[in-house]
Amino acid sequence: MSDITQLNAQLTPQLNPSEASEEFASHGLLHAEMRVLDSLPRALAQGIFSQPATFPALVRLSSAPLVRGMAVKVTVPDGGRTAQQDFVMGGAPDRRLLGETYFSQARIHYGDHVAQLCAVSVSRGQAPRRKEGPQGLRDAFVEHFARHGAEWELRVCLEEGAFGWLEDPGSYVTVARIVARPQPAWSTTLARAAAHAVTFSPWQCVEGHRPMGTIMRALRDGYGASARFRGAFGAGNMAEPYNALAYPAPN
Q: Residue spans with biased composition (Polar residues) (predicted)?
């Protein structure tokens, strides 16, 4: 067995049959709001966070091997037009979704600065854990949002000189809150939107929050190819600008 094969075997999670179907899956697609905080210090009042505001947003919680994912799509004004600003973040492969802390997968421009971001759950009560069955995470997610909402703090850590990857939420400062009310978290309509009509990419962004680094530049074409591939097999419009809020919002 080659070194690469051995490494892949070590990194591949051992999933039981009830978990296997969730190795790659979206578990919920939520209407939410991102509320930019008032009185941010000048260094943090940059880009879409430059002044207090409330923006419509979509939140997707998902799974991939070795990671849980949280993606947030914010609809913002940008030079007289409407733009999408996506934040794509990942967390540890715990059995929970709402109790995780999710970190950005790349540094981004933050106005005049460079930053990393994280989303920290500040919801009250115990985060729901996976239920039994082949779609246990999704079932727990749907059951939770039938009665409860969720809230996250979006936090920023500005880079000052060279530093490594920061995984301590205490090193980050809150700039906004993401709030989702109780609502249907999954349905046939939402499944269709998640599969064919809504994409999340760090490169769907305003100029002030572009991703940084050679890896992210290399992945840019990959995000676009993925969107085109998915769009070819569904009725969704994968062309810019993405109509992320096209499906009905919950009452």
A: 1-19
Distance CA 110, CA 116 (A): 9
Residues 187, 248 contacting (CB under 8 angstroms): no
What's the CATH number where 168 sits?
A: 2.40.180.10
Cα–Cα distance, 173 to 156 (Å, whole number): 5
Q: Is residue 89 situated within a structural domain? A: yes
94-132 pLDDT, tens digit each: 667 788 899 987 789 999 899 999 999 998 766 677 788
- Cβ-contact 141, 26 below 8 angstroms: no
- The helix or strand, by DSSP H or E, that contains position 192, with its residue range, turns out to be helix 188-192
Work out how many domains the chain is built from and give that number: 1
Q: Is the pTM of this model over 0.85?
A: no
Domain assignment of residue 121, yes or no: yes
Mean pLDDT of 202-206: 89
